[in-house]
Amino acid sequence: MNGARRLQLRCALIATAALFTTSAMSEEKSEPSVAPRFQPRVDVVAAKNLVRNASFECGDDHWSSLGAPTGWGGDLSGLYGRVQSDDAADGRSCLVIELGPRKTPETCFDVWPPKRVVQHAPLTAEIGWMTVPRGQPITLSAYLKSSVPDTKARFLFRYASNALGAVQQSAEERVVSTEWKRYSVTQTALDEDVCIAIGPDMTAMPKTDVVFRIDAVQLEAGSAATPFETREPLELGFSTSRYGNVFEAGQPATIRVYAHNRGGNAADVSLKLEWEDFFGAALEPRSFSIHVPAAGQTEQDWTLPAHGKGHYRARILWSAGGIEHSYPLKFAVVESYKHDDSPFGLNHPATTTRQLELLSRAGLRWVRNWSVNWQWVESTPGNVSWETQDAQFDFMVPTGLKNLIVFPNPSTNWDSSAPEAVSNPMWGRMAYAPKDPQLLCGFIGAAVRRYKDKCRYWEFLNEPLWVPDFCLPASAGYNVSDYISLLEGASKAIREADPDGRIIAGLSIEPRMPLGDEFITAGGLRLCDILNLHPYGSLTVPEEFIKDMERVQAAMDAHGGRKPIWATETGYYAVDDKPWQPWAVPKGHFSAALLLPNERVAAEYVVRHAIILLAHGVEKLFYHEPIHGAVNNGAMDIENPFLAEEGVPKKTYVALSALANLLGPAPRYECEATFPAVVSNTGARPIGYVFQCGAKAVAIVWSPGTNVPLDGVALPPAVTACNIVGNELPGKLALGDSPIFLTSDSLTAGELAKGWHIGAAAPAH
Q1: 426 and 472 in one domain?
Q2: What is the pTM (predicted TM-score) of this model?
Q3: Quick one: three-class SS letters along 346-415?
Q4: 221 by DSSP, 3-state: which?
Q5: Domain for residue 580, yes or no?
Q6: pLDDT > 90: what percent of the chain?
Q7: Domain that holds residue 753
Q8: Are 470 and 417 in the same domain?
Q9: How far apart, in whole angstroms, are the C-alpha atoms of residue 124 and residue 200?
Q10: Which of 83, 142, 221, 611 could potentially form a cystine with 217 if both were Cys, beta carbons 3.0 to 4.6 Å apart?
Q11: What is the CATH number of the domain that holds 323?
């Protein structure tokens, strides 16, 4: 579901969540006194050319790609193309983009409706907004070359003066020859902030193989292109050579440093790196020097002594040409998840294979796919096509991720029982029950037969009854018995088509809402194998979910016995680097209105929340939602719990990675942990849950809102303690907001629950 609608749906819940919030508050939502401006920004210097690394002599630094939007799922995320050191128009290097069958990048998203887009025009975009004189002419120029005559190139300008307003776009095309030639476009600046993109547009020649080259990009004031210059005579660039800047644990964290010198004198540049770890603790600064010959360039590797796994935030500082420079860098070090299955997944697939692979690496091994919607398969009676849905699942194959298919709506526009006054073609009419339920059952049976080799888990309807306009809305008179009636037919259709399939059903509701219990008390569990819940964190501390989950489990105990629970949508949100400054929450943006104070808090909440749910009958958690917005507009990325712009991880990514590696594919909850008397004597209320994870016993312990040193307490030799990012904790331990992971290869989970601490007179629960 999209952010605007979700905010509307949960407005009543936000007030309720605030009552439960004891240690986190939303960001200030008042309007700023000055207009918010998009970030990141290109620093203003006395230069003719506003573009950094304009000739690609510093590798691919400062460059990304801009494609066509895919559903509401996002864009390309990261640079498509490679910097090549031959056949350049200026200097040694240029950017090479290859397109054609099996080469052109593709993006995919499952709603509304599902789309798989072949990106025939992947424009190369500079990262960062530049300041230009509004209302005055500006000229964008570049050297271009194509292996195919008459290739079209697109020059794109995006303008903004207020990040909460509309971004204005203006584009022009040029026809490119097979020889290097300089092309230019002049426009009147529509606003004072601009970002640019240039690249091939092979839309008219989709089956043609082409090698397209870009070099010497220049944006300048004035109505004509002038001779090319780099932004500064001496430029530096940096690259981890890894998508998202994610390094593998145990391997060097190495940055490639590029330096390009147009001046007539050699230069020695001293660099200083200031950095901090996941917890915000400053690490020892590092220095590096690089010698750059006159009218030349060089590149060297700089290996950083990263302190184990984690999330690192850095600034690289240097001086050149009398200008002080500061370069922000974020990177992560994780242990790649090695199992095929895991407790964690995504609500909707990420837009690119590269994003999916990066998320899978952190242990997110499932995707809840919405594309199998009756209306999208059978747009008019008898007009059945599975082509779009097949493309969605084919896109997923290389990643190896597992599918959960949700049938989100009960009807089509043409078989809906909605009154004629309901005209919303996106989902309004589909929200109502079908005129002929047998047609719905027939569609479900056909879908299950078609995709049962790709999926064995089938969820019936998304958030019925309690959402105002989406699916059997209570506002239209529907009740739990109406849902169960439709589920009865759907369940039979699924069983007949896939006897070994698993049916997921319920109201996919917030656990705190007792309406969800009505499905259980009405006997709905007999029609499904798994109960669904949507335990969004909002601003609620994770511990508040304990009583709600206990209530749901008690309802099951009283009405036929417990069944597994899948949290098919959930999430906490935070953004350390806001996409505009000064920060203001845009209207209708779900996650932006519910941001926790920072990414560390969000990461700690995600881990505590996941452990509480897993200890209360939940088997899988699907996080909403892994979308990536257009480069230089991070509004969409706010709603991505794990990745920021350009695929760079947030702190939740490394925390979930450590948790996934700790738990493995099938953790089995055993019991609560006990605590030494020294903890209970402080008045703290510690929390701990113990799991058997294959041959390994795992306990996760914390004490919300406190900091309790475990004085006089030690770990037995059989137990190892790690912090939230998976690094071993030496010395004395302390319980606080950040969970501690305790593991043992020799103790059982029951033994670990009581025996993880020694040196205390009496244990306390």
Answers
A1: yes
A2: 0.94
A3: EECCCCCHHHHHHHHHCCEEEEEECCCCHHHHECCCCCECCHHHHHHHHHHHHHCCEEEEEECCCCCCCC
A4: strand
A5: yes
A6: 87
A7: 668-764
A8: yes
A9: 9
A10: 142
A11: 2.60.40.10
